Amino acid sequence: MSTSQLILELSLIGTMLLLTGIYLIRGYDKADSASTKVHKILTGLLGAFMVMAGTVKFFDPFTTMFLNQIALSELPFPTLSRWAGQLGEIFAGLLLLVLMVGRNMLSTPTKDRVMQLSTLLTTAIMVVAVYVHLLPNVPAEVLPLQSKPPVMTLVILALAWLNALLYTRDRQK
Questions:
Q1: 104 CB contacts (<8 Å, ≥6 apart)?
Q2: Cβ contacts of residue 132 below 8 Å, gap of 6+?
Q3: If pLDDT is split at 50, 70 and 90, which confidence band does 96 have?
Q4: How far apart are CA 137 and CA 125, in angstroms?
Q5: Helices (H), the chain
């Protein structure tokens, strides 16, 4: 991994954390349970991360790496796979950010659908990402963080499921 790529990734992650943190501090409510606070934080972080992950794939070196991942993994319909991956990540992230920002303005059924759709999209994207990571003909050099084990992918998947679980628990209270 080159120094410039590492700096770019760290600056994107830092910016995402800063913006999400500012919003969460502004929306802090002492009356929230610990579960609700964790859910709010996860929703914001996952939303920002997914938008960032989909957006960076429009710029080099990420575009080249992503195209190589698709080509080497021999996913069907490579052009569709590229756009579905990028736009799917952005859309899932935007749904989570809408849920975070519009929490009090959305009806309960709308919030339920938004959470379900974002979790479903994130799950589908991460399952494909795990598949690509595990293929022997896809080298680590073309993978995010240039890591062959899909650790980050599985962490994001687990956090998305945890977020959905916390949302469901909060709804039942």
A1: none
A2: 69, 73, 75, 138, 143
A3: very high
A4: 20
A5: 3-26, 34-56, 62-73, 78-101, 108-134, 151-172
